[in-house]
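Sorry to interrupt, but I need a hand with the structure work. Could you add the entry underneath, on a fresh line?
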Amino acid sequence: MRFLNAGARPGHPVRDRDLLLSVPNVLTLIRFLGVPLFVWLVLIQRDYAAGVLVLAVMGGTDWIDGYVARRFNQMTSLGRILDPLADRLALITVAISLVIAGIAPWWLLLALLVPDAILMAVTLRLFRWHPDLPVSVVGKVRTAALLLGTPLLLLAAAFGPQPTPATVIAWIFLTVGVLGHWIAAWNYYRAMLRKHRNLLAATPGGPDRSESSDVADDP
């Protein structure tokens, strides 16, 4: 079974549906609810093992909702916005919690926040709202690596004195995730510029479409 684009059926194009309540959207909501639960467990209860379990459930629902959406044609316009938003909220909140708990260094948080802050500023400047661009393969690998690295780092802390083999494995995943985060952000930035120029070219009185030909292709 494929992990990337799992559930996709070749030859069966999937179109967004106008649904608010769907199984993938409910699973995404569970991920949102898991964020404050994780913060409470790690920062208040100091129960790192339970925090790992919450992260495992959140990571599992991230994969399952994508599978269900593609396999059963339940992709929605709302889901295309909520799903990456839930991922980003979870990753940033988990990083902040680990830094406050003294488990992760502050530079890990900055490495995640800076690209997102830049993209948010560009998004608001060019689109006033979500640009509605597809998630790239690099973005999916990045998210998977970070969702594996963070619980492993927390699990290593639960074991006791550092470092442990789990610590080394965690930092391998986190390094891959951070590098992928910056690459995905750069590709997303280029894709936003391309879409913005194409929208301007399609607007009556806007610049000629040929002016956007020098913009890099979408990732």
Remarks:
- Residues 165-202 form the longest helix (38 residues).
- DSSP finds six helices and no strands in the chain.
- Residues 23-212 form a domain with the Four Helix Bundle (Hemerythrin (Met), subunit A) fold (CATH 1.20.120.1760).
- Residues 208-219 have pLDDT under 50 and may be disordered.
